[in-house]
Amino acid sequence: MLIIKDISNLQSYLSAYQNRKYSIGYVPTMGALHKGHGELIKQSKKGNHKTIVSIFVNEKQFSSKEDFETYPRNKGFDYDFCIDNEVDILFEPSSEEIFKNDQTLLNNKNFKDILCDKFRRGHFDGVITVLDKFFSIIKSNKVYFGEKDYQQLKIIEKFIEEKYKSLDLVSVPTQRHEEGIAYSSRNEKLSKKQTQDFVDFHKKVKNFIGSLEGSLDIETANEKANDFMKSQDIDKLDYFEFRNDTDLSFVGTLSQARLFYAIYKGKVRLIDNLKV
Ligand code: AMP
Question: Best mutation site among 30, 81, 148 for ligand 1, i.e. most ligand atoms within 8 A of its Cβ?
Answer without folding.
Answer: 148
